[in-house]
Design a protein that fits this description.
There is one protein chain. It contains 13 helices and 19 strands. It is of the alpha/beta class. Strand 18 and strand 19 form a beta hairpin. Helix 6 runs parallel beside helix 8 and helix 10 packs parallel to helix 11. The radius of gyration is 25 Å and the shape is globular. The two termini are 46 Å apart.
Length: 399
């Protein structure tokens, strides 16, 4: 029905676009007038589609595996029935054959996720492409998820709604165990409200740094209205999720004192993930001073989510010398205004022999790790090769 309503509008808009382009050169005023009319028509189309899509059941999201599981589950019983003898097929009533197809589809939907998403003893870390911001998803061996930051939100684009939520829905995620906000900067927590609307959430974790940021206070209020628990991240705090240990190394209680600093980056939550022999470090936007203080306590790590989007104020030599990461990922936007990554940081990572990936070039970077320390790295796009790392050996390619 919506298509029927839109067809005459689009039929007018398309020739209007070409007419405004053609007339814009000899008659700029007339071309601009036509372009304004076309824009109005397209805005009406966009508004109509958006409003209808918000109605219950109109635009359902389905996990990505459904696109394979449903055809397989439907076609396999049909194929088996066709291959059976003619006499056997005749003895099976039509409704029974239909039930067999239904059972095949249901079985595929139940069995496909563990088959398609790898072994149950793997942990996944996805450093999402959320532009000039941070967004990291961690999946435990039991299929429970934790989100660390959710990207930027602006008047024109919400990375939480446009990048984080679609990723969760493609993976069939309906609930998050926890959202960790490293610090109250909009490029880290801006997408959290959209995530709250899309999936169930058990609680929030953040440094509880006093700030007058209106978007942040609105987020706190929304969490309170939803009855979410709000937990304070402090040095020494830790929790376990299906064998994945999350340990907080910063901030200390003395760091979160009103008036001590006016920069939320100074209280950015630094978390080390440990799963058996594998470990990863998520530094938020913590500056080099914080890195130097905690570096000796961290021990060797395999994966580093580099600090502050590749700014030269983070990812210092002390941290790299002490932790010796195998892979580092820089989360940043394309052609950003800050000059990230800074050449000093890139050169530092190169000199330490660290494979470095950038979300602006490679898109979302996914890591799958095993208890024995072996882990694989996969880039969404770009020329980086998918690799698997084994401690004490060279990288070899994943099948």
């Amino acid at each position: 029905p919506v298509t029927i309503l839109l067809t005459p509008l689009i039929s007018v808009a398309i020739p209007g676009i070409f007419a405004s382009l053609a007339l814009g050169f000899p008659f700029p005023a007339l071309g601009g007038f036509l372009a304004g009319g076309v824009e109005l028509i397209l805005l009406i189309c966009q508004l109509l589609v958006s409003r209808v899509a918000e109605l219950p059941g109109v635009a359902p999201w389905v996990p990505r595996w459904w696109l394979v599981a449903i055809p397989v589950g439907g076609l396999l019983p049909i194929f088996l029935l066709r291959e059976a003898s003619v006499g056997f097929r005749r003895r099976i009533r039509g409704d029974v054959r239909g039930a067999l197809v239904g059972v095949g589809i249901a079985s595929s939907l139940l069995l496909w996720p563990p088959l398609s998403q790898g072994r149950g003893d793997d942990v996944e870390i996805h450093i999402l492409d959320v532009g000039q911001g941070d967004g990291v998803l961690v999946r435990s061996t039991a299929g429970h998820w934790v989100l660390v930051d959710a990207g930027m939100r602006s008047p024109t684009f919400d990375y939480g709604r446009e990048r984080v939520v679609p990723f969760l829905r493609r993976r069939g995620v309906r609930e998050l165990e926890l959202v960790i906000i490293t610090h109250p900067h909009l490029d880290h927590f801006g997408g959290v409200p959209a995530v709250m609307e899309a999936v169930s959430l058990r609680g929030v974790y953040d440094p509880a740094w006093p700030t007058g940021s209106r978007p942040y206070l609105e987020l706190v209020e929304e969490a309170r209205e939803r009855g979410l628990s709000w937990n304070v991240a402090r040095e020494g705090a830790s929790f376990d999720l299906d064998g994945v240990e999350f340990q907080v190394f910063h901030p200390r209680p003395a760091d979160v004192v009103p008036g001590l600093t006016d920069d939320p980056n100074d209280v950015s939550v630094v978390i080390r993930l440990r799963f058996g022999d594998f470990s990863a470090l998520l530094t938020g936007d913590a500056p080099a001073e914080v890195e130097r203080r905690i570096a000796a306590e961290l021990g060797p790590i395999h994966l580093l989510k580099a600090g502050h989007h590749g700014s030269r104020t983070s990812t210092g030599s002390t941290l790299l010398d002490e932790t010796r990461p195998r892979v580092a990922v820089l989360s940043m936007g394309r052609n950003n205004l800050y000059g990230h990554p800074h050449p000093e940081v890139v050169d530092r990572l190169t000199r330490h022999g660290i494979l470095t990936l950038r979300t602006d070039q490679s898109g979302t970077v996914s890591v799958r790790a095993r208890r024995n320390g072996e882990f694989g790295v996969r880039a969404e796009r770009g020329e980086e090769l998918t690799k698997t790392y084994r401690d004490g050996g060279d990288a070899s390619y994943l099948p």
